[in-house]
From TrEMBL:
InterPro entries cross-referenced by the UniProt entry: UspA
Function of the molecule: Required for resistance to DNA-damaging agents.
UniProt family annotation: Belongs to the universal stress protein A family.
Keywords: Cytoplasm
Subcellular location: Cytoplasm
Protein name per the record: Universal stress protein
Record PANTHER family: UNIVERSAL STRESS PROTEIN E (PTHR47892)
Residues in coiled coil: none
Annotated source species: Lacimicrobium alkaliphilum
Keyword Cytoplasm listed: yes
Domain UspA per the UniProt entry, residue ranges: 23-144, 176-305
Length: 316
């Protein structure tokens, strides 16, 4: 994500949006981006009020009027802060209508509340946020209401696997690093990069491979140095003079565990990560790694897509 010229924000007045609106206002002011506020109203069932003889169309008109008034009140705050702001209220399914607006308005970034209306603790991200993280063609910033303001730290999660020839992943790593540094500069916060690593078949090296503890420790040390070297070279090649602005962390463990641990330890309020297309299924996360990370972290997430990503949902 090289620049942010137009942001689309999905408003959910049924949720606590205070933190989302604060971070949205700060980003718009720092980047100079234009803002479109969007609220999606699901159609009222014609059968819902048959017994009371209340026309669903009348109720929908009132709901639309209320939504428009609410968005205009929000917009006034942004306009007073010097942000060019438009409002849009539409009827339909939230995911479909958001994707439609993303395509029609050519936005650079979609921002929304991360939480759902559910109070289940295990559901860190709501279903709407997860669907859009998977399917939206532009970057998606899902904001946690519990994050700090101003933001304390931003972290990018890269995958510098030396045996991986996946071009999508290779192309995403520079975008993740550059986006992390760009946002850190804009928002005036420290930037971090994290890389998780494990030995192939590590769980079986001792139990089935017969390796002793000393040999396994030597392999760990060698692999740690190897990834630290890859990280240093990556930062030099991708970030050039900006590399001194970023703190790097190379940690042994599974990606989900390491990223969750590091975001907690370093007080990360925004995690920048990539999503990829599983072979043959456009718009889905590759394997379970990205899903595991999303279900493990307790911070806001900015999900980036690889070049050429095609949305799997037709919005027309």
């Amino acid at each position: 994500m090289e620049e942010i010229a137009h942001i689309l924000f999905l408003s959910r007045p049924d949720l606590n949006q205070d933190m989302s609106l604060r971070q949205l206002r700060q980003l718009c002011q720092k980047s100079g981006a234009q803002l479109t506020l969007l609220e999606v109203l699901e159609p009222v069932s014609q059968n819902l009020f048959m017994s009371e003889k209340v026309l669903a169309s009348q109720l929908e008109s009132k709901l639309i009027e209320h939504a428009e008034t609410n968005l205009k009140l929000i917009a006034e705050d942004f306009i007073q802060a010097g942000v060019k702001t438009d409002t849009v209220v539409v009827k339909g399914k939230p995911v479909i209508e958001v994707l439609r607006q993303v395509n029609e308005l050519s936005v650079d970034l979609l921002m929304l509340n991360a939480e759902s209306e559910s109070n289940l603790k295990q559901r860190i991200f709501g279903s709407t946020a997860l669907h859009l993280i998977r399917k939206c063609p532009c970057p998606v910033w899902a904001i946690k209401s519990t994050c700090y303001y101003p933001m304390r730290n931003i972290m990018g999660a890269v995958d510098l696997n030396p045996d991986d020839d996946d071009r999508q992943r290779s192309n995403l790593n520079p975008d993740i690093a550059r986006t992390t540094v760009m946002l850190a500069d804009l928002l005036g916060t420290p930037a971090h990069l994290v890389q998780a690593w494990k030995l192939d078949n590590e769980a079986h090296l001792q139990t089935r491979g017969g390796l002793d503890d000393r040999t396994l420790e030597r392999l760990h040390r060698d692999m740690q140095r190897h990834y630290e070297s890859r990280m240093a070279n990556f930062c030099t090649n991708v970030l050039s003079e900006q590399q001194t602005k970023i703190k790097t962390h190379v940690v042994h463990g599974t990606p989900a565990h390491v990223v969750a641990q590091q975001t907690d330890y370093h007080n990360i309020d925004l995690l920048v990560m990539g999503t990829l297309s599983r072979q043959g299924i456009l718009g889905m996360l590759i394997g379970n790694t990205a899903e595991d990370i999303l279900n493990s972290v307790d911070c806001s997430v900015l999900a980036l897509k690889p070049p050429g990503f095609v949305c799997p949902v037709k919005s027309d």
